[in-house]
């Protein structure tokens, strides 16, 4: 059986789709987010891509587990009931299933992600 790899290429320079306002903003400015290279592999039940957000504060609303590698920018993520975590270019993070909290994007943030 031939295996097919799902690949994100050149995430730092990948052209993004049209930005849209954060779904659950908190205050002003309202962050604008966009994605690129969105791919879903039904065989393994995962989606991957590139995500970028302008500065702003908003709630994380995804229920999936997520692994992300921060390509550029910086932010603070505060999980509900947890301590704030500073993330910046070069960092990687694993969000457990049902992890909710608040994104505070300080500097335009670009990351690659795997939702599973």
From TrEMBL:
Q: Gene3D superfamilies, per this entry?
A: Jelly Rolls (2.60.120.10)
Name of the molecule in the record: Cupin domain-containing protein
Question: For this UniProt entry, which segments traverse the membrane?
Answer: none
Q: Taxonomically, what lineage is the organism?
A: Bacteria, Pseudomonadati, Pseudomonadota, Gammaproteobacteria, Pseudomonadales
Organism superkingdom: Bacteria
- Any Pfam family hit: Cupin_3
Q: Coiled-coil segments, which residues? A: none
* CDD domains found in the cross-reference section: cupin_TM1112-like (cd02227)
Q: Taking every annotated instance into account, which residue ranges of this chain make up the domain (S)-ureidoglycine aminohydrolase cupin?
A: 46-113
């Amino acid at each position: 059986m031939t295996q097919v790899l799902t690949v994100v290429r050149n995430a730092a320079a990948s052209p993004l789709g049209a930005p849209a306002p954060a779904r659950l903003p908190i205050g002003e400015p309202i962050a604008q987010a966009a994605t690129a290279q969105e791919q879903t592999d039904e065989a393994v039940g995962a989606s991957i891509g590139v995500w970028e957000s302008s500065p702003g504060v908003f709630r994380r609303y995804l229920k999936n587990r997520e692994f992300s590698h921060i390509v550029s920018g910086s932010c603070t993520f505060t999980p509900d009931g947890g301590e704030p975590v500073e993330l910046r270019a070069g960092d990687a993070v694993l969000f457990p299933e049902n992890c909710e909290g608040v994104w505070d994007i300080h500097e335009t943030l670009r990351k690659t992600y795997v939702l599973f």
